[in-house]
Design brief:
The chain is mainly alpha-helical. The protein is built from 17 helices and no strands. 39% of the residues are buried.
């Protein structure tokens, strides 16, 4: 445990400086209200946390982010300079505070994944340092986590819960998932699916911890729905109607080029994993040995996000929600990188030429 904490602290410090240019670039040139209205809701929430009338649902239910951003803002932690985002009605300091929370969240997410990979291999190899850094250049993280929205903290909470669950720490995972009711409703939905599949396919001896996580995810989701139903300021209340969900699924078509481009072709981390797999197969004439639970988790996570996104009629924002595939993609990529490294460094056993007939 002590080594894991030291590893996590060292990685957090290194990544904090490694990702600082991305933070500064986003602060100087990102325009959070371009192409959407989400930031308008969040800006009001950041100024008035725990006020459920400050914005419409479902945005107003993401209160953990609002509280943290407000704390940073009220603490006076700020950097006053000219930035591209200068729209009237918005405070620059609030944007800086929101971006700071997300920047720190991405940093801690990478550090958690690096520490997990370190413990997995029982050594601090280059893979455990470099692959989490590669993850940060995932399209969804660059454009939505380094912003004034809520993706950065949501990714951190999901990653922490996921790694705790996969590390045999179900109580920690359960507590984080319960808190997610006030951060991102997709997190408990994903864990309901992940744990349900594990109960069917996994070893029965681990079912006690799984049931605890499943109970917390179910309770978290029910609490979120109950709270949302109690609010009158919900222009998207139809998303909770079973008939609306069925109609959205029945009327959906994959033939929209914009949907294909913005949802699938933006998933550069997934494409990198696919290319790494293909190149490994070409080089070794066999598939990389990736643990089945990783492949299963990726399929479940991707499938649930696609299904929920289509049912909720969020359109191209499904590509944004696929940010939650980042942790498992990172672990898969690390697994392929390590196996490739072992193949390249393995000693080559040459067969000596057969001796000729005696003279």
């Amino acid at each position: 445990m002590a080594r894991a904490l030291i590893s996590f602290g060292a990685r957090s410090l290194i990544y904090l400086f490694a990702f600082f240019p991305l933070f500064y670039l986003a602060y100087k040139f990102h325009v959070p209200d371009f192409g959407g209205t989400d930031y308008a809701h969040y800006h009001a929430m950041y100024l008035r946390p725990l006020d459920f009338s400050a914005a419409d649902a479902p945005w107003v239910l993401r209160q953990i982010q609002a509280v943290l951003v407000n704390l940073v803002y009220e603490a006076g932690f700020d950097y006053d300079t000219d930035i591209a985002f200068a729209a009237t009605g918005y405070e620059r300091g609030v944007f800086f505070s929101a971006l700071t929370v997300n920047y720190l969240s991405v940093t801690l997410t990478a550090a958690l994944l690096g520490t997990f990979l370190h413990c997995q291999a029982r050594q601090a190899d280059l893979v455990s340092w470099c692959i989490p850094a590669v993850m940060v250049f995932n399209f969804s993280i660059l454009f939505f986590a380094f912003s004034g929205l809520t993706e950065g903290l949501s990714l951190l909470m999901f990653t922490a819960a996921y790694l705790a669950y996969r590390s045999g720490l179900p109580l920690i995972a359960a507590l984080i998932i319960l808190a997610a009711a006030l951060q991102r409703e997709l997190i408990p939905i994903l864990f309901v699916a992940l744990v349900f599949v594990d109960l069917i396919t996994g070893e029965p001896r681990r079912n006690k911890g799984r049931l605890l996580v499943l109970a917390s995810a179910t309770l978290s989701l029910c609490a979120h729905i109950a709270l949302r139903l109690s609010l009158s300021n919900d222009p998207y209340g139809h998303q909770l109607s079973p008939q609306s969900l069925i109609d959205a699924l029945a009327g959906f078509s994959f033939g929209n080029p914009e949907f294909i481009f913005q949802v699938f072709l933006t998933q550069n981390l997934a494409i990198i994993v696919l290319l790494a797999t293909v190149m490994f197969m070409v080089a070794t004439r066999r598939a990389p040995r990736v643990d089945r639970w990783l492949t299963r988790d990726l399929c479940v996570t991707f499938g649930v996000i696609l299904f929920v996104g289509i049912a909720a009629a969020v359109g191209n924002n499904i590509g944004r929600l696929l940010i939650f595939c980042s942790p498992v993609l990172t672990i898969i990529l690390a697994s392929i990188a390590r196996e490739w490294s072992s193949v390249l460094t393995a000693p080559i056993h040459r067969v000596p030429p057969a001796s000729g007939p005696p003279a």
